[in-house]
Write a structure and sequence with these properties.
Layout: H1 7-20, H2 39-52, E1 56-59, E2 65-69, E3 80-85, E4 100-102, E5 110-111, E6 119-120, E7 136-138, H3 147-165, E8 174-179, H4 193-196, E9 200-206, E10 211-213, E11 218-227, H5 243-252, E12 270-278, E13 282-291, H6 296-314, E14 319-328, H7 332-335, H8 339-351, E15 357-358, H9 366-372, E16 379-381, E17 393-395, H10 396-416
Parallel strand pairs: 3-8, 3-9, 9-16, 10-15
Antiparallel strand pairs: 1-2, 2-8, 4-7, 5-6, 7-17, 10-16, 11-13, 11-14, 12-13
């Protein structure tokens, strides 16, 4: 199966372009669920499109879309879901996205009409070196593209189109899941497992074609609360304890040559301050803690506690409290007990003609938490590159290979059941 020279290529391009233009940016600070109502704009469209293809689909009040394609085989095949998230990262604007397609890319500089300071080329994004002849999609400048994770959404919808057009392809029960708020760490907070009605699944939320992730960081969140002593600055001598300065000293105590995203790679852990704010009386610092070994998070927590103790000694009138929260855990801890879920995915990827590369992912997907909810869920590539930035791009051919992987995977599970 090669979808590159078929009508499905144009179907996928049209689908991605349409989804990317819908503003679905999530919001870290919102208390609602989903964090932004605009995410439902895409969810409603996806539900309608699934129904148009003859798929049973519904959207709940939280913005989850559940789709069901019945089995067309008499074999007892597991119920398998494919999942992508509809929201885009608040790290970069997702409003008024204007996708541009660069057909038959040949290594040239890609410029952005809405921001002349931007340029994309293989020196800036090395993965472009592997995409000669591909059709590359970028934004127009000033926004991200939304390939994370609308590349996955488009690949899933194209696979659904292919399956409904080809009822001769034997498969078991297929489930479709689109989630909100993955980018703010709340993607499965209100998942209805009964509505999903699946045994396990695969997130379509990865990068380079051929890559497969069944190992992620284990992740914690920390918020450091710093209490100073506020007083009018004109009468502050020997009285004021400025919480902003205390917070600055706290951050300055972090390791300079390690344990940070900018100094680590592969399976190395890190502690990363993501937000800081406050005033003289009170300040807060938010951190994410990451380690592939779950027990290693205890050491990262201890590091922050030690820095708090040292900082309090240097500012004796201050008070520092740290609030820790579990975010997700390394999905390998679950998937090690389900080897077929991994083996069949590797086989499906290689059936597309790609060499499968099994890599740990220095981040997390909905699959991390789904795995610990009793729904084992590794992650498959869809062609997301340079994400969370105005230079984000995707490859049409990579998305098509992801679509082919979905179809092959369903066939393999049917054949082996």
């Amino acid at each position: 199966m090669n979808l590159d020279q078929t009508s499905y290529k144009q179907f996928l391009i049209n689908a991605f372009d349409k989804y990317a233009r819908i503003h679905t940016e999530s919001d870290f600070h919102s208390k609602s669920y989903p964090s932004t109502e605009r995410q439902k704009d895409l969810s409603k469209l996806l539900m309608a499109e699934l129904k148009e293809m003859g798929v049973e689909a519904n959207m709940d009040d939280h913005g989850y879309v559940y789709g069901k394609i019945p089995a067309n085989t008499k074999k007892n095949v597991p119920k398998i879901f494919f999942c992508s998230h509809v929201d885009t990262s608040p790290d970069c604007s997702g409003k008024n996205v204007l996708p541009r397609i660069h057909e038959n890319y040949q290594g040239q500089d890609i410029t952005y009409p809405n921001d002349e300071s931007l340029v994309l080329n293989p020196q800036i994004s090395p993965k472009l070196k592997d995409k000669m002849g591909h059709d590359i999609i970028t934004a127009s400048g000033g926004t991200l593209l939304g390939a994370d994770n609308k590349s996955g959404v488009a690949a899933i919808m194209t696979a659904v189109k292919y399956l409904t057009d080809h009822p001769d392809i034997k498969h078991g029960p297929v489930r479709i899941l689109f989630t909100p708020d993955e980018e703010v760490g709340r993607g499965v907070d209100h998942l209805d497992k009964e509505a999903l009605d699946a045994d396990f699944g695969y997130t379509m939320d990865g990068e380079q074609s051929g890559t497969f992730n069944w190992e992620t960081f284990s992740a914690d969140y920390a918020k450091v609360h710093i209490h100073g002593v506020s007083i009018h600055p004109g009468y502050a001598k020997n009285k004021l304890v400025n919480a902003v300065k205390v917070a600055s000293d706290f951050v300055d105590e972090l390791p300079k040559n390690g344990l940070s995203p900018e100094t680590t790679s592969d399976r190395q852990p890190f502690v990363h301050p993501v937000r800081i704010g406050g005033n003289a009386e009170k300040a807060e610092i938010e951190f994410i803690l990451r380690d592939f070994v779950t027990e290693g998070l205890n050491g990262l927590r201890s590091l922050l506690k030690d820095i708090a103790s040292k900082t309090e000694k240097e500012w004796p009138e201050s008070k520092i409290e740290i609030e820790f929260k579990e975010q997700y855990r390394n999905m390998r801890e679950v998937l090690s007990d389900h080897p077929k879920i991994v083996e069949y995915a590797v086989e499906a990827i290689e059936k597309t003609g790609l060499k499968c590369e099994q890599l740990p992912i220095r981040g997390g997907t909905d699959g991390s938490r789904l795995s610990f909810m009793g729904l084992p869920c590794p992650n498959i590539f869809v062609g997301e590159y340079h994400f969370h930035s105005p230079l984000e791009w995707t490859s049409v051919q990579d998305m098509l290979k992801a679509t082919e992987t979905i179809v092959h995977l369903l066939q393999i599970w049917e054949e082996r059941s």
